TrEMBL record:
Annotated SMART domains: AAA (SM00382)
Membrane topology qualifier: Peripheral membrane protein
Stated name of the protein: ABC transporter ATP-binding protein
Keywords: ATP-binding, Cell membrane, Membrane, Nucleotide-binding, Transport
InterPro entries recorded: AAA+_ATPase, ABC_Ni/Peptide_Import, ABC_transporter-like_ATP-bd, ABC_transporter-like_CS, Oligopep_ABC_C, P-loop_NTPase
Lineage: Bacteria, Pseudomonadati, Pseudomonadota, Alphaproteobacteria, Rhodobacterales
UniProt-annotated location(s): Cell inner membrane
Major localisation: membrane
Length: 328
């Protein structure tokens, strides 16, 4: 079966001309029907920018300059802004980290959901409210008729996020992009939202891109995972394979820095250094300055994707599945 989303060689830059900064560099991403693919990495790795590039929500100083973005048989890069507005919200839904980016604080929930529904589905007035009540009930909101009359500030953070999810799913989109939607929620509510997302994907066949920096979330929700660093996917594969037998040193560093992966009372390992600035990317592998396995090859040449025996694809000259290279 053809994938719902196929991204190949996605390149996004900030600025123009000689001062342009390449923020995404050849990103590949594939998501099938009913599949949950997680994008994971440190802040600034390009996770959210990938989602915004796919959905056409880039700021004015950013532009997709290369690669392809296909939603089924539709080439999203070939669409006009008006055509893209017809896709966004109907075929591609977006859930933001802060639900107040979705909800207008001065409008009741019903008004906002009604406008979102009628933007793509001009239903008769009598059917609109019934559809909104159904949408809130599907995401586990009790007394949905009462919640429709509420103002956003009258709802808890978890409730607001459920409203945002219900709004994103109003048109049963083929693809949903969720940009760290549980970061601001407590652990209990976070678990409920994760279970809700999994159930909706399973029941509706929706393809989901889940953007997060939390590997615990990745382990609990994703089918596949793509690890990003400095605007590139450095490792990709089935979630169990990547988390159990990581091939890239950066992935290993992320896993080791999770408290649950270390003995009680032990000091958490840290990845030394910091992610490079877009204006000062190394000539070779962007992770080389922080990597204990680097060699002269890493410093001079960018690694290309290569398959490993465990089913992953990794961009590394000296993956953990092979003997370490000579020290620099």
């Amino acid at each position: 079966m053809a994938p719902v989303l196929s991204v190949r060689g996605l390149t996004t830059v900030f600025g123009t001309g000689e001062t342009a900064l390449r923020a995404l560099d050849g990103v590949d991403l594939t998501v099938h029907q009913g599949e949950i693919v997680a994008l994971v990495g440190e802040s600034g790795s390009g996770k959210s920018l990938t989602g915004f590039s796919i959905n056409g929500l880039l700021p004015g100083n950013a532009k997709v300059t290369g690669g392809s973005i296909r939603l089924g048989d539709t080439d999203l890069r070939a669409l006009t802004p008006r055509q893209m507005r017809g896709i966004r919200g109907k075929q591609v839904g977006m859930i933001f980290q802060d639900p107040m980016m979705t909800l207008n604080p001065v409008l009741r929930v019903e008004t906002q959901m009604r406008d979102a529904l009628r933007a793509h589905s001009p239903l008769p007035r009598g059917e609109v409210r019934a559809r909104l009540v159904q949408a809130l009930a599907e995401v586990g909101i009790a007394a949905p008729e009462q919640r429709l009359r509420a103002w956003p500030h009258e709802l808890s953070g978890g409730m607001r996020q459920r409203v945002a999810i219900a709004t994103a799913l109003l048109h049963s989109p083929q693809l949903v992009i969720a940009d760290e939607p549980t970061t601001a929620l407590d652990v209990t509510i976070q678990g409920q939202i994760l279970a809700l997302a999994q159930r909706l994907c399973r029941d509706r066949g929706t393809a989901l891109v889940w953007i997060t920096h939390d590997l615990a979330v990745v382990a609990g929700i994703a089918d596949r995972v793509s690890v990003m660093y400095a605007g590139r996917v450095v490792e990709e594969g089935p979630v169990d394979a990547v988390l159990d037998t990581p091939a890239h040193p950066y992935t290993r560093g992320l896993i080791d820095s999770v408290a649950a992966s270390q003995p009680k009372g032990a000091r958490l390992p840290m990845i030394p250094g910091r992610m490079p600035l877009l204006s000062d990317l190394p000539q070779g592998c962007a992770f080389a300055p922080r990597c204990a396995r680097r060699s002269a090859l890493c410093i001079s040449e960018r690694p290309e994707p290569r398959a490993t025996g465990a089913g992953q694809t990794v961009r590394c000259h000296h993956p953990l599945t092979e003997p370490a290279g000579a020290a620099a």
